[in-house]
Structure formats: structure tokens, C-alpha cells
Amino acid sequence: MPSLSVFGAQWGDEGKGKIIDLLARGADVVVRYQGGANAGHTVVVGGTKYVMHLIPSGILHSEKINVIGNGVALDPLALFAEIDELTGRGVKIDGTNLRLSSGAHVIFEHHRRIDHAAERWRGVGRIGTTGRGIGPCYADKAARTGLRLADLLEPERCRVRLTAALAEKNALLRDVHGEEPLDLDQQLSRYMALGERLKPYVGDTGAEVRSAYREGKLVLFEGAQGAMLDLDHGTYPYVTSSSTGTDGIAPGAGFPARWIERVLGIAKAYCTRVGEGPFPSEDKGPEGDRIREQGREFGATTGRPRRCGWFDAPQMRYTLELNGADGWIMTNLDVLSGFERIKVGVGYRMGSKRYREWPASLASFEGLEVDFEELQGWNDDITAVREYAELPRAAREYVEWVEDRVGVPIVMLSVGPERDQIIPRRDAPQFHVLA
Ligand code: IMP
User: Fold this and answer.
1) 261: which residues sit within 8 A by CB, 6+ positions away?
2) What is d(CA 319, CA 295) in angstroms, rounded to the nearest whole number?
3) pLDDT digits (tens, 9 = 90+) for 69-79
């Protein structure tokens, strides 16, 4: 099974970091192909917490190759802050185990500034972005005014292109947003110096990954954010600016779509969302607060409290189908321990109209209500359970009921943040996707 795509099947923060770290043991190459430092992938090893924003979660295994593909919006300052932090904690990172695509677009200071400024203009329509400059960087990429890592490595080219870009951005900052413009010389010297430091890591990673695949190496693609934040298929305009699912791999990594052999979705046993936008199964009452407390649901990148709610079965069917998932992994099942009743969304209502599937064609989700069904909860702490049969009966019934509603097999369950807090489902028909 030489290539595997792992993606977030909800609104991000599904616990992908831990799962990628786990699956990376059997992989040779781990590839990020979209997003940027807006992501926060958390891995806990022996009580020590590592949060990766840009660097693939395979980095904690020293012998693996980690790739940041051309589809990533790369902030060199964020990258080096992360490299320094991880190397300071004993993680080995150099140009042999971390490879950066020369085609990745660079996030500059002006992108971060414009990200914040644009949010202020949106008023009630604000998206609640992470403020990392992601949207403005991708906008420049599409407008063909962006700079790629390859441009940073060539001082003369960098000078010409950054001068032109900054002339426009400074006019925007000054005349539209009423902010101080950025100093060209300062920006040039900062980013040219960063380009120098980036050199050992940069190459044609598309060719490197394809060649590894042809040699029979196992390539693991690490999606960031979640399918409901996908630029095209998510809850637009409350989305991020990239293709967050399996469909982002071909353009974002230079890897043919036909070579992707297995696809796994990751989803929590409930739902969360950070930032604004539709979240039909959100629980704004005390039970939502309780999920937040028990699940420690605060953003890994911004520290914001996450909005919490219940598992939404049609939403999950939608994202698993869109991405062609063979199976999925349910995370944070332990967080539901202690709830007397557990709700699951099974359909929607808008006025007199009913929807059994995710109503993707709606322009606005305002007023969309969820039909819930309730299942029996369980009281036992399940964080030490490692075998499926040892879970309380009500927990197994919950898992199997949800799996049946979703129609795609759950191949693994996660019951805590540590690497070993995993319950394989050996009896799941698609368990071999991990073999
Ligand atoms: P942006 O990606 O910073 O432009 O933010 C757009 C939307 O995506 C906001 O609602 C963010 O909160 C959300 N978002 C971006 N990255 C993540 C993530 O890694 N996890 C969860 N939400 C995210």
C-alpha cells in the first residue's frame, strides 16, 4: 500500500497530528500539500506535547522524510520558529529529512497585515481567520503576483518581484486600510536572508516524492484543516483558502491523483469548529460547554475556545464520499464519557423543508435546524482501554450505530492524546487499509 491520504473530515482539529504521527511509523515520506501555519497538529509523546503548524507530523520519527509541497503557503518566519523550537527539544531537522518545494508560495509580513485588516472590513461577515496571512497569500498566487521559494533563493529576482508586490500592498495598506506602509529595504533584507537560510531544504519535491513512490516507498499525505473548510466544497465563504481534502494532493504535491491508493478520514466522536460560519449541530448550551471542558477544546494555533456540538452523520457522509474514503478513524471518544445521553445529527430542517443529506447547495445555512437522535451514554473512563471488546457496551453501541449511519467503516478509535491511546478495529472490513 504505497500511498495513503489522511484528511480531516469535519471542520479541522480532528486529531490528525496524532494519527499521522502513528501512521508515519509505517511510512517513508510524509507530505503536507496545502494550508500553512494556520494548522495546529498536536502530538503527545510520553507526556511531552509537540505542536506542529507547518512541518509534517512525521518529523518526530528521525528516519522519515517530511515534505512541504508546492501547494502550501509557507511563512519562512513561522517555519524557522518551528524548526528552532523542535531542534531545541532534540528533534533532528535538516535538509535531508525536511524538504521544501521550490514552488511553495511565500507568506510575507504584508500578507499577515492584510489578513487582519481585511477581517476588520468584513464587519459582521468576518470569517474569524487565524490571521496567519493564508487567504491573502493564496489570493496573490491566483493573481500571479506572489513569490515562490524559488524566487526567494535568487536575490535579483526576489528584489524585482518583492519591490513590485510591495508597491501595490503598501498602497492598499496605506490608502484602503489606513495603516503604516512597510519599509521596502527592511523587507528585502529580511526575506533575502531567510531565502539564504532556506536553501539547503529547497528542491523539486514533486519529483522527489514521485520517485520515492516508484521505488515502492510508502508516501503518506497529511491533510490540514478539514473538509468542511475546503475552499470549494466547504461552507463558503467561511472556509480556508485551499483544497483541504484528497483532491488537493495532485495540484499541491505534484503527485498524480491516480496514484493515491488509500484514503482515510479523521473525525471526532463529536464536532467542533473555530471561527465563524455554519455549524448546524453546535450546542450553545451547558452540554456544549461540557464537551469543551472535557475535550480541552481550545485552538492549537490561536488558543481560541472552539465551538462545540454533536456528531453530524449526513455531514460526515458528505465529506467521506467527496474524498472517496475507504475508512475513517474516530478520535476523542473518551471525551464523551460521563454524558448520560449522546446526541447525533441525522438530518436537517429549514422551515418546512427537510434534508436527509448535507444541503451543500444552500447559499446560507442560517435557520437550518438539525434532527437529532439520542443514544445511551456510559460512565467509565475509557482512556486505558486498548481492545475494542473491552469498551463499555454503550460505547461500542455508539460507535457501531454511528458507523452504520455513516456507511464507511471505522478502522481505529482514539481515546486520548498519547501515541498508544489507540483501539484498532481488527474486525472492521477495511482494517487492511492500515496493513
Ligand atoms: P484561515 O485559514 O486563517 O484563512 O481561516 C479561515 C477559517 O478556517 C477560520 O474559520 C479558521 O478558524 C479556520 N481554520 C484555519 N485553519 C484551521 C485549522 O487548522 N483548524 C481549524 N480551523 C482552521
Assistant:
1) 1, 2, 3, 4
2) 23
3) 999 999 999 99
pLDDT at 433 over 70: no
Contact between residue 13 and residue 271 where contact means Cβ atoms under 8 Å apart: no
Q: How many CB atoms lie within 10 A of CB 397?
A: 14
Task: Confirm or reject: Cβ of 272 under 6 Å from ligand 1.
Answer: no
Ligand 1 centroid, distance to 57 Cα (angstroms)? 18
**Cis peptide upstream of residue 237 (ω within 30 degrees of 0):** yes
Tens-digit pLDDT profile for residues 366-380: 999 999 999 999 999
5, 227 in Cβ contact below 8 A?
A: no
Whole-prediction pTM: 0.95
Q: If you measure from the C-alpha of residue 310 to the centroid of ligand 1, how many angstroms do you get, rounded to a whole number?
A: 20
Residues tagged active-site: 13, 41
pLDDT band at 432 (very low <50, low <70, confident <90, very high): low
Residue 244, ligand 1, Cβ within 6 A: no
Q: Per CATH, is 3-100+202-259 categorized as 3.40.440.10?
A: yes
As annotated, the residues of the chain forming the CATH 3.40.440.10 domain(s) are 3-100+202-259
**Assigned CATH for 267-434:** 3.90.170.10
Residues 6+ away with beta carbon under 8 Å from 27:
4, 58, 64, 218, 219, 220
Class assignment of domain 105-198? mainly alpha
Rounded to whole angstroms, the Cα distance separating 265 from 10 reads 9
410-414 and 327-331 strand pairing = parallel
Give me the chain's average pLDDT, please: 95
pLDDT of residue 190 exceeding 90, the answer is yes
Beta-strand (E) ranges in 123-215?
Answer: 202-203
Look at the block and give the residue holding cell 499541491: 252
Q: How many angstroms is it from 273 CA to the middle of ligand 1?
A: 9
- According to CATH, where is 1.10.300.10 located in the chain? 105-198
- Which residues of the chain does CATH 3.90.170.10 include? 267-434
Cβ 130 under 6 angstroms from ligand 1: yes
pLDDT one-digit tens code per residue, 275-332: 999 999 999 999 999 999 999 999 877 888 999 999 999 999 999 999 999 999 999 9
